[in-house]
Amino acid sequence: MTPVALDTLVPGAAAVAVSGVTLDARLVEPGDLFVGLPGRHHHGASFAAQAAAAGAVALLTDAAGADLAGGVLPLAVVDDARRAMAPVAARVYGEPACALTTYGITGTQGKTTTAYLLDAALRAAGTSTGLVGTVGFSLDGHDLGGSRTTVTTPESPELQGLLGHLVERGAQALVMEVSSHALVLGRVDAVVFDVAAFTGFGEDHLDFHGDVESYFEAKASLFTPERARHAVVNLDDERGPEIVRRARAAGLPVTTTGFGRDVDVHPVRMGPVDRGRSGLRVRVGDRELETWLPLPGEHNVRNALTALAMVAASGGDLGAAGRGLETASVPGRMQRVDLGDGAPAVFVDFAHTPQAVAAAVAALSDTHRVVVVLGAGGDRDPGKRRPMGHAAAWSADVVVVTDDNPRGEDPAAIRAEVLTGARSALGRAVEVVDGGDRRSAIATALALAGPDDAVLVLGKGHERGQEVAGVVHPFVDADVVREAWAARQQTTGEVAP
C-alpha cells in the first residue's frame, strides 16, 4: 500500500504519510492513522498513547479528542470524526469500491440469505466475488477469517481495508449486507452501490433506533443517489411501495420483485418442496428461467427473486445465475441438519423477529407437523419477545420456549415473556412448553417430534456461542441437535444413523 499524505486528505492536518486506518488501538499497525471517536464510556482519543506505542503515526479526532490525546501524535482535527473517517479510509486504501461492481442488501430479514444466493449466482458466471456480512467475510466462497468489530457491516476503516484486500486478490464484485446501524453511523459512506436491494421491513433494533419510523428511515436512506445507482425492491412487503416512490423521486432506476404479475421479476411457477428444495420458474423482464432453490419457504423464493433482479440490474448472466442458485448454501438460514433415516427433518434458522419467525414456520407448516424451539435475546428490544412467541404458536404445532443469548438478563424472565406471547395464540391447538436451557429444549423438541415431523430451531443460526451473564459459552445449534439425537438413540436403544 502506497502511503498517503494526511494533509492532502484533511485540510490543516499534520504533513505525515499514513498507510492504514484503524479505530481500535489494539489493532494498530506501524504507519496507521488512529481514529479517536467519542464513545458511551470513553473517548477513543484517550487511547492515543497506546496507539502511538503500536506504531500509529497520526490521530484523526474531534476537538475534545485533541485535548485528551496530550500531544502524543500529530493531529487531524475535524468536527465529526466518524463521518470524516470513511472518505479518508477510502483514499488511504486506494478507493477500492471503484474497482468493484458493488451490491448492497438491506432489510430486517433476508439480507444474509439473499447475499449468499447472489454470491452463488455471480460466481456461477465466473465473477470473482467478495462477500461481507453477518456470517463473515469471504472471497469466492473461501473464508477470509480475521477479527471483526461489528456484527453485520464493518466500520468504515475496517471495510475499506477489506475492500482493498479483495481488490488485491482479484475480486471483481462485492456483495454486502448493509445494516441500519451502518447507514446511521456512516460505515458505508464512501461506497456508492451499483445495485441496492430492499428485502423487507419489520420491527427490530429499537434499542438503537428508538422507534419504528426512525428504523425505517435508516433503511430507506440507502435508496438515494448518494448511496446507490439502481434500486431493487420487494413489493410484497408493505413498506416496499414507499421505498419505490422515494427511489424514483430521487431519480434512481427501480426493479421491482414479488409474487404479483405486475412486477418486473416474479415467479411463473413454484413446484412442491422436495427434500428441502423447491422448483422455481421465474420471469425476469421479458425472459423466463428455471432453477431449483435449495431452501424451503416463500420468503426464500422472494430472496431468490431479489438476487436474480440484482444480477439483471447489473447486466449479468441470468442463465448462469439460475444455475448458481441451485448450488447456494447459507449457514444457519433454513439449514438442514440431516440425522438419517427415521429422524424428523431438522432445520436451524437465524429468525429472531416476529416476521422472520412467522416466515420460517410457514415454510414448513404446509407439509409437516412443526415443532419449534424458540428464545429471545437479552438486553435487546424486549418489545418483540411476546410477538415472537405468538408468531411461532400461530402456525406451529408445538412451541418449546428456551434461552437465546440471555446476556445480562434473567433467562427465566425472558422465557416468561416469550411463553406469554405463545400462549396468546387463542383458538389454536398448539402445545407450548417451557424447555428451560437451550440444550435441554432441543432434546425435548426431538423427543416430541415423529419421523414425519419437522423441528425448527430458531434464533441463533450460524452463531457459535451463547452469551450468558457476560460469558460466551461454545454452542452451535446444529452440533447440539446431532448430539441430542445421538443421546436419544442410545437412551431408547435405537441404532444411530
Describe the structure in your own words.
The protein is an alpha/beta fold. The protein folds into three domains: 4-92, Udp-n-acetylmuramoylalanyl-d-glutamate--2,6- Diaminopimelate Ligase, Chain: A, domain 1 (3-Layer(aba) Sandwich), CATH 3.40.1390; 96-327, UDP-N-acetylmuramoyl-L-alanine:D-glutamate ligase; 335-492, Protein-Tyrosine Phosphatase, Chain A (Alpha-Beta Complex), CATH 3.90.190. Helix content is 34%, strand content 23%. The strands form six sheets. It has an eight-stranded mixed β-sheet with strand order 10-9-8-11-7-12-13-14, with helices on both faces. Strands 18-19-23-20-21-22 form a six-stranded mixed β-sheet, with helices on both faces. The longest helix is centred in the middle third of the chain and has 16 residues, at 298-313.
CATH C-level category of the largest domain: Alpha Beta
Predict the CATH topology of the largest domain.
UDP-N-acetylmuramoyl-L-alanine:D-glutamate ligase
Number of helices: 16
Q: Beta fraction of the residues?
A: 15-25%
Mass-distribution shape = globular
Number of strands: 25
Task: Please identify which CATH superfamily of the largest domain we are dealing with.
Answer: Mur-like, catalytic domain
Estimate nothing, just give the exact number of structural domains: 3
Q: Cα distance, first to last residue?
A: 53 Å
Strand neighbour order, sheet with most strands: 10-9-8-11-7-12-13-14
Rg measurement, Å: 24 Å
Q: What percent of the residues sit in helical stretches (DSSP H or I)?
A: 25-40%
